[in-house]
Amino acid sequence: MEFGVCSDKSKAFIRLDPRSKLLLLMAISIIMIGGTTVGIEGVLRIICAAIPFLLLLSIRQYKAATIYLLLLGTALFCEKQVAPYTHGMCNIILMMICGLITRFVAGYMMGWYTVKSTSVSEFITAMEHMHCPSFISIPISVMFRYFPTLSEEYKSINDAKRMRELGHPLKQPLTYVEYILVPLMMSTVRIADELSAASLSKGLSAGEKRTHICEIGIGSIDIVAIIGSITMFVLFLVY
Amino acid sequence: MIEFKNVSYSYNVVDADGNAVDKGGVSNINLTIADGEFVVLTGGSGCGKTTITRMINGLIPQYYKGTMDGTVELDGKDISETPIYEIAKHVGSVFQNPRSQFFNVNTTDEIAFASENQRRVPLEIKSSIRETASSMSIERLLNRNIFELSGGEKQIIACAGINVLSPDIVVLDEPSSNLDFYAIERLKEILQDWKAQGKTIIVAEHRLFFLRELADRLLIMQNGEIIHELNKERISTISSAETEKLGIRPLRLDDLQTDFQHREQSDITITLENFCFSYSDGEHGIDIPELEVPSNSVIAVIGHNGAGKSTLVRNICGLEKKFKGVMRYGKKTLKNKERLHNCYMIMQDVNHQLFTESVKDEAVLSITDASLSEEEKEKKALDILSQLDLYEYADIHPMALSGGQKQRVAIASGLASEKGVMIFDEPTSGLDLSHMKQVSDELIKLRKLGKTVFVVTHDLELILSCCDRVVHLEKGAVMENYDICESNILKLKAFFGKEAM
Amino acid sequence: MEKKFEIKDLITVGVFSALYFVVMFAVACFGFIPIFMVFTPFLCPLVAGIPLMLYFSKIKHFGMITITGTLIGIIMFVIGHPYPILLFCIGAGLLTEVILKMGNYQSIKHCVAGSAVFSLWFLGMVIAFFFSFREAYFASIVDGYGQEYVEAMKSYTPTWVFFAMIIMCLVGGAIGGLLGAKVLKKHFRKAGMA
């Protein structure tokens, strides 16, 4: 799991503000999980299922979009056409799996889109625009910065472990975990210390506001997305 | 102007038994650094030079907790009473470890970071980034993932951030530790620019040769005190023999001496065959159909960044799973798995390869000989530890040791595993003269024990003091492969640039 | 908050939350092997409890764990988990904070209890499968299949599984906390790092 590092504007057909993405995520996760499949709610579900698909296309994530379409299509087909011909346990498992897919996959795909289309700095800037306090925004930037570091550290620890032919994951699970976690934890303590020193000396301070070179803004598509999400909320709650 | 008035400082740390103790620091420092001056601080590890840099950027006393006497003033203002983010406006800092000094993942964000913290207008920051990028010609480094850059490029990004913020004072704490010769050249150019702009520059360093033409003053420290001061004229003329007497790394590389006595050839050779490997991103690959080196010798692997040095040694170790090449060692032919069994690498960051709770256990863990009883294993481990002067630390946790000691623990566990090939990845990066010599002695000792040692290094002094053979890689291929002897010494020095000639 | 957060605290929160999250994630991936799937609510907190204990030992004042909870919630939500995850993460964070506070951020017992309680955020991921989803799902198929069918189906997916998961989380988190305390004593105290 990682956010895009560099925002490449030329690649996307539609650019949404991270704030609209969050609102859409919220709308999709509420409408898809709750609600029935008939009437207005049924229409809303179709719209919510279509949004991630279109957005994935807009950032040229064709593979993800195809997988999503196939998954959703298969699940719907099984639910409507295959399930009625099965019986007992088999039927119940099939229904459950199809139900899970049709209700949850749209949310995960919207998440995938959000992660793929947003750079860390866009996300942080958006958070600060939403008046998110620095005690949330600073740790979250640090987290995203620390994920790749963790993977680098893990790789070297794993190399060292292999070189010494230590710890098999299944034969000695506890030793295996210890030999990976302890050096990783040691690195974390050390890096936290060095990173704090470096950030302080670059003038980062918990109390002061900072500016951002990253540009985000609500455009016309965002307004459509925001009005759309709110309308869907309202319709969903009223009916 | 920076003024140290009778400053003493000691760090408050907690020892292994949970008691608070005072450690290291500096005592009775009186020092005045004028505007626009270029001052270099040097001396053995723990001599207090880093402490001085931390007092200039305010990390001491505001971040590192300790006991401080006396005052440090920056243009008349007491550092301990100025908030760090205020100091950060005037003092830019570059740190030793490029991996942990970044707050952002994206290079452009990182360059802008310090200026953003000072709440400068975004448009203004952006235009200074553009200016900086073109003046330093680093356009290709903008808007990239920092984790894809080399150590040298990371250090350049740190310097670019300082250019954008444009403070009057810059402190650098061992900026060259992780850099190769090219990158050091770049760093030197940047320092030259800053000096020309009239910035006050303070560098704490072990490697000094690239500072010879820049430094106005060189301060040598020991046990927290300034024991020698060299002026500009002395800096430009001092010979390697004299710097060695002062206990510091040389200021010039062209007059380095070496003796060729200890080098004698072994007739068994190690041959690497079909060492071809490429990564999915197409970079750092190697293409070596055949490479022959003498066994039981110390082999330096040199080459510029991205030449494939790490890839080569990783494959010698057998760490890349799909690799097809083989190593012929005398009559044996070793494939990937068997090489993993016969080679041992001491990594650049030894912290990653120490796993147990005591130095002794670390050695015992590597003894794979199943025929030995626990007592025999322990005895053997202690023997090895005493060979490496680690006997007294047998029951200490490896992580409580100093950097050099940790490295020796890693060597000890390599010896305990009885593997024939030992590989060192940049063993002397960031080491002072005495520790560099210690590493060189250890490499010679390993050779006497019959090991074949590969050393990936950018350190000419280390190569001259202990290596027998040089393998020079460039763009993944072997460019040169020669013995170190009188006739080849010029070829070797040529690689290290005009400084060394 | 008794005291304003310092940069050091916020960075500690960031790196340890990342470490905790990654360990959780790694163990959960291991859970794709079917036999282990059932035990993920037990195994994940068990392994992740080890770094969590180190994190607890670094905490100096109120609020840091709640931030960690919030961060995990935000990330889980952004990658597409249904919204209850946010409430569970923040709630578990607050509860843990209170427990740690009672032990003055020193007591090992309280830390172990904290590790157990913190792992309850895990349930935020599955609760939608059991409650809101289940009810809505059954409501949506009741027309087509009839009440009897739905009753039969309900009996196959009992809610007690959810309560079993609560227990697995608590026990896993507590064992993880104990292991963590052992690791701290074995390695970090000796190395002078905790």
Q: How would you describe this structure to a colleague?
A:
The complex is a heterotrimer of chains A (239), B (501) and C (194). By secondary structure, chain A is mainly α. Chain A has two domains: 18-122 and 218-238, no CATH class; 132-202, no CATH class. Chain A contains eight helices and no strands. Chain A has helices spanning 18-33, 39-58, 62-82, 88-117, 120-129, 134-163, 173-201, 220-238. In chain A, helix 6 (134-163) crosses helix 7 (173-201). In chain A, 42% of the residues are buried. The model of chain A has no long low-confidence stretch (mean pLDDT 85). The two termini of chain B are 38 Å apart. Chain B has 17 helices and 20 strands. With 501 residues, chain B is α/β, with parallel strands linked by helices. Chain B folds into three domains: 28-90 and 169-174 and 200-252, Rossmann fold; 94-166, no CATH class; 269-500, Rossmann fold. Chain B has a six-stranded mixed sheet with strand order 6-7-8-3-9-10, with helices on both faces. In chain B, 49% of the residues are buried. In chain C, 54% of the residues are buried. The mean pLDDT of chain C is 85. In chain C, helix 1 (7-30) runs antiparallel to helix 3, helix 5 packs antiparallel against helix 6 and helix 5 (84-102) packs across helix 7 (123-130). With 194 residues, chain C is mainly alpha-helical. Chain C has one domain. Chains B and C meet through loops of B and helix 10 of C. Chain B: One of its GO terms (molecular function) is ATP binding. Chain B: Keywords: ATP-binding, Cell membrane, Membrane, Nucleotide-binding, Repeat, Translocase, Transport. Chain B: It is a peripheral membrane protein.
Mass-distribution shape of chain A: flat
Look at the helices and sheets of chain C and give the structural class: mainly alpha
Distance between the termini of chain C: 24 Å
Shape designation of chain C:
elongated
Q: Count of helical segments of chain C?
A: 10
Q: Give the integer mean of the pLDDT values of chain A.
A: 85
- The helix tally of chain A amounts to 8
Keywords (chain C): Membrane, Transmembrane, Transmembrane helix
Pfam families (chain C): Trep_Strep (PF09605)
Transmembrane segments (chain C): 12-33, 39-55, 112-133, 160-181
Protein name (chain C): Energy-coupling factor transport system substrate-specific component
